[in-house]
Write a structure and sequence with these properties.
By secondary structure, the chain is an alpha+beta fold. The protein contains two helices and two strands. The protein has a two-stranded antiparallel ribbon. The radius of gyration is 15 Å and the shape is elongated. The N and C termini lie far apart (about 35 Å).
Amino acid sequence: MGMINIEVSGSFRNCGIKHFTARYGGHAQAVAEAIMYLSGDFLSDAIKLDHELHKDGEKPEIGFGERV
């Protein structure tokens, strides 16, 4: 069965590895769980961190929200 592994490191607040497996609910369920993980509290925390950095005059090389 398939597995999705998301590894987070660096300045993110939620560092570590998160695993989502297709073993119990299928492949679509694993993808849905990974999306919910990234779009839930994880995304909210990332937005807060970006706002804090922006307030301190820090920004990514190409700017916030710009596509590479």
